[in-house]
Amino acid sequence: MKRRKEVTLRDIADELQLTVHTVSKALRGLPGMSERTRADIFETARRMGYRTKEQELSLWYERIPKLTTASRRFVFLLTENTPFYRLQMDGLQDRLQELGHSVSTSFLSSRITGRGELEDWIANSDLLYADGVVIPPAIPDEIESLLLDIPLPKVLINYPPPLAHVDSVIWDVEQAIHQSVRHFVSMGHKRILYIGDTDTFRGFRLRWSAFCAAMRGAGLTVDPEEHLTSPAQSSSEWERQLTERLLESDRTAILCAVDSYLNPLIYFLQARGKSIPNDYSLIGLENMASPLFPHISRPSLLVREAGRKAAERLLWRIANPDEPFEHIRLSGGFLEGNSVRRLV
């Protein structure tokens, strides 16, 4: 691989079999290509070590050190080893390594339920010897609140709770929901079924409120009783509710707002002889492309990019301890697949 200063637009274009003009437009944020192509160009440029002059200046303006004489070690807390968390870890690790630092994972047991157990876990780990900590999403509120009291520089990959004194980075699910509803409406769909969870996590609650706002903005009404917004007690109960709210209604489109619900939904439809998009149009809020349905239409959730930005925020916080806390939302484009049918 060439050194960073030697990498050119031509190198990136050749790698992707694109024109130099297309690569240049993508890196300058100009239109003229699909969101998938733009994402591929940025990822390839990053992997090859290419930075534009504007990116170099941005690091300087934001006071994020590019080089350091002391290598710092950070910790990424995990409750599960899943692709969702590994995606965040990949972004975090890549960015820290680029800037001369390292990150390790520390597993937080789901059996920890209170302050005493958490303090014991911290005492038996090397967490307090780290230079900073990254707290991921989907941690119970009480445990998250205790973690936010750890006396270390920290970044929360989540929407921050009220009154939290912490920097945060998150992919913008509210924007993603608005993009999804807008796409459905542009394709002629008005009877949209929302499938999600409005209770478990802050991000889930924000998705539902964004759906209601987007529907109102399109001149459409929302009756919560007509949607699936709570986890069912059993799979049979969930299927009963889905039958009632989808198969026995005049819905034409489904917005699956929680990625873990997508596979059960597709299996449910296939078992009843229904297909996407002939019978129902579908948009899913997937953290990554689904192996079962890789061409689903979906908003681009910048999960990996959130890890990269969290790395920058940690270094920025260490360099600027007295600056106000910042809450960053990363908004991606909309990836139009083949799962939404245009109504006549």
Question: What labels would you give this structure?
Answer:
alpha/beta, Rossmann fold, three-stranded parallel beta sheet, 12 helices, globular
Show the helix and strand layout.
Elements: H1 9-16, H2 20-27, H3 35-48, H4 53-61, E1 73-78, H5 83-98, E2 102-107, H6 115-123, E3 132-135, H7 141-147, E4 154-156, E5 167-171, H8 173-186, E6 192-195, H9 202-217, H10 235-247, E7 253-256, H11 262-271, E8 281-284, E9 298-299, H12 303-319, E10 327-330, E11 334-335
Parallel strand pairs: 1-2, 1-3, 3-4, 4-5, 5-10, 6-7, 7-8
Antiparallel strand pairs: 9-11
Helix pairs in contact: 1-2, 1-3, 5-12, 8-9
What does the model show?
By secondary structure, the protein is of the alpha/beta class. It folds into three domains: 4-61, 434 Repressor (Amino-terminal Domain); 73-171 and 301-332, Response regulator (Rossmann fold, 3-Layer(aba) Sandwich), CATH 3.40.50; 173-300, Response regulator (Rossmann fold), CATH 3.40.50.2300. 41% of the residues lie in helices and 13% in strands. The protein contains twelve helices and eleven strands. It has helices at residues 9-16, 20-27, 35-48, 53-61, 83-98, 115-123, 141-147, 173-186, 202-217, 235-247, 262-271, 303-319, and strands spanning 73-78, 102-107, 132-135, 154-156, 167-171, 192-195, 253-256, 281-284, 298-299, 327-330, 334-335. The strands form three sheets. It has a six-stranded parallel beta sheet with strand order 2-1-3-4-5-10, covered by helices on one side. Strands 6-7-8 form a three-stranded parallel beta sheet, with helices on one face. Strands 9-11 form a two-stranded antiparallel sheet. α1 packs across α2 (20-27), α1 (9-16) packs across α3 and α8 runs parallel beside α9. The termini are far apart. The model has no long low-confidence stretch (mean pLDDT 87).
